[in-house]
Amino acid sequence: MDSQSYETCHVLLDRLLQILDGRSLRFMEVCGTHTVALFQSGLRSLLPKSITHLSGPGCPVCVTHDSELALCLTLAQEKTVHIASFGDLLRVPGPNRETLRHARAKGAKVSLVYSPLDALKLAQENPSELVCFLGIGFETTAPTVAATIVTAKERRVDNFCVLSLHKLVPPVLKALLEDPDSALDAFLLPGHVSTVLGLAPYAFLSRYRVPGVVAGFEPIDLLLALCMLAQMHRDGLFLVRNAYERAVRAEGNPKARELMDRVFTRTNGLWRGLGEIAESGLAIREEYARFDARARFGLTLQAVKPLAGCRCGDVLRGRIAPPDCPLFGTACTPKDPVGPCMVSTEGSCAAWFKYGGVLWVRGTNTFCSMPAVAGWPHTGSFSRSLPNIFPIPFSTAWTTRPFCRLYPAQWPWVRTATQWPHFFSQAGA
């Protein structure tokens, strides 16, 4: 960030404080890139305490339901099928914590691709195999999948199909607002999705007396959007505004939407943590049925047992923050994830773990010690002072469970007691 941008951010942050004037603001972003940008830029730590930031269902991998993952694993077991998928989905645990990577290790044909056109090329290069692309994502990726299906039909690539697991953003926003436990004041609306949708699909927010602002991804973009949200919230205005005009037009991208409508039809969608939401999914139209994996294999969703202990669903609904999950940072880490929110680079749990600046280490009468560093951002009072050692006592200020706040983003050598036992000691165990 250059000096001019740095100064602009300071001006916007001061403006935000002035607008709020002590008032609270509870906003939710529904874009995985916003999740990471708020943490990575450090903005989240600079926001006033009166602002509550919630990460919503904006990560495509995270919102994919357990039943849908089970469907993917079922397809992978077909001997004639070659699965093509984006990378993050390969690591998402399904029933019994099985993943597509596990399926590949057992002999299934599973390939990582960077676009649906790569999957189509894979099908053309392997005519004896049926290549099935796992279509996940929102309105941002759905047009490219639609274009690929149209291309497959034009080129008569009959050994290609798509398992459509696409989701739509506006219906899930409505579902969140109708949840009596949400208590949201405002939405930070997704930038990438809005390049396709434009502003009109969010107009329903006014009926719920909730403002929304489409935001970009730079610190200036995010602060400008938050200032706009805070001002509308203060003035009792419930509008949809655009703070990302260099990329998002009010009308969006009509051609992309036309292509989506040509190939897909709306259907009920199944969301992790939110269940079935009316007209929030995309199904392939009858005209393109031979490219529809569900029609081709007669696939139907089956109820599956959720992952034990995983609270990704509650995180996606904004009911808890990732550290509230009992598995966070201990049983569930980016290296060995239990839930999808820790898998994806856009997942809120992964963002908290990498950038959140807080690692919750639980125990009784436990303290951690680490090398003294000038200006180390500790919290609470030190129980004692030793040369080159900072012992940090557990307390119950943040939750009812004992915890210790650590800062893994700034101090990468600090992780968990099991990984770095020489930094931790147990007293009176």
Description:
This protein is α/β, with parallel strands linked by helices. The chain has one domain (1-308): 3-Layer(aba) Sandwich (Rossmann fold). It has helices at 3-20, 32-40, 43-46, 60-63, 66-76, 100-105, 116-125, 142-155, 169-177, 191-197, 219-235, 254-263, 293-297, 312-316, 348-355; strands at 25-29, 51-55, 81-85, 109-112, 130-135, 160-164, 186-189, 212-214, 240-242, 264-271, 275-284, 359-360, 366-368, 392-393, 405-406, 424-426. Helix 1 (3-20) packs parallel to helix 11 and helix 2 runs parallel beside helix 15 (348-355). The radius of gyration is 23 Å and the shape is globular. Mean pLDDT is 84; it is low at 358-429.
Number of domains: 1
Please report the total strand number as a whole number: 16
Strand percentage: 15-25%
| CATH architect. name | 3-Layer(aba) Sandwich
pLDDT averaged residue by residue? 84
Q: What is the approximate shape? A: globular
Number of helices: 15
Q: How would you classify the helix and strand content by structural class? A: alpha/beta
Query: CATH topology, which one?
Result: Rossmann fold
Low-pLDDT parts are 358-429
CATH superfamily: HypD, alpha/beta domain 2
Distance between the termini: 48 Å
Placed side by side, the strands forming the largest sheet appear as 2-1-7-8-9
Task: State the name of the first-level CATH class.
Answer: Alpha Beta
What percent of residues adopt helix (DSSP H or I)?
25-40%
Major sheet characteristics = 5 strands, parallel
**Radius of gyration from CA coordinates:** 23 Å
